[in-house]
Design goal:
By secondary structure, the protein is α/β, with parallel strands linked by helices. The chain is built from eleven helices and eight strands. Strand 1, helix 2 and strand 2 form a beta-alpha-beta unit. The longest helix is centred in the middle third of the chain and has 18 residues.
Amino acid sequence: MLFKNRYYFYGIKEKKHMTRRHLISSMAGAAAASAMPFGSSSLQQTDYALKLKGNIHHSVSQWCYGEIPLPEFAAACREIGIESIELLGEKDWPAVKNAGLKCAVGYATDWGIPKGFNRIEHHEKLIADFEAMIPKAASAGIPNLICFSGNREGQNDNEGLINCAKGLRQLMPLAEKHGVTIIMELLNSFGHADYQCDKTPWGAALCEMVGSERFKLLYDIYHMQIMEGNIIENITKYINYIGHIHTGGVPGRHELDETQELYYPAIMKALVKAGYKGYVGHEFVPAQKDKLASLRKCVLICDV
């Protein structure tokens, strides 16, 4: 059984803002035409969808909008110009496909973040789960399946690196056969206490050890700003190891606007300059009441 939202999946309590009941389903009207931050003049739009530049392939994490029924959310995302709704289990893939969207990242296992590939005793279940799901993902057009290192629990980073590589290498022939990429998420080890894959160099070393184009990193900008900063330089340096991007404002994991310390247009331009062709998955939790208008605004901020 897959988890209802990402907070539950991560094993932490839901935040207060996730319980709000007031959701705005319509994207029309004045809210959709609100002014852009960072000096942008207006929201360019048609009656049905925003006219995006096409340099960034926008995706969005469903768990951030879990109170909105998925079919309704998918229709709104399509109107905004978002191409994908991600972090979905197999049962939800058809709803997204029926809306004319992709699912950029799927789940392969019901195990969460703490129990990952860094423990040999976890390999039997994880490998079985991924081997069962890789062909299904390929058939459904899901390009990526997410995985995690797991928590350290006293284990040193070298041992964790070796164990992860041992497990992941066993999946690569099947992943290569079906054209599905396994992506390991980089997370901060403060909010996700003790998580092992918490630095980009560690993740890049793991990619080298696995030695397959079908294993990449999920570079989460929010988490890596907390852990190491220097976002643009690190994205540029490690771009060959990055298979997916997540966004989020720091502090607070909220909107990507002037309320936080990162300037997302520059980050998106760096991604384009580096030749990144994958999806940018928006994984911020809206602080505004009108969550869909907030999502629309942040998509435009990142549309470079």
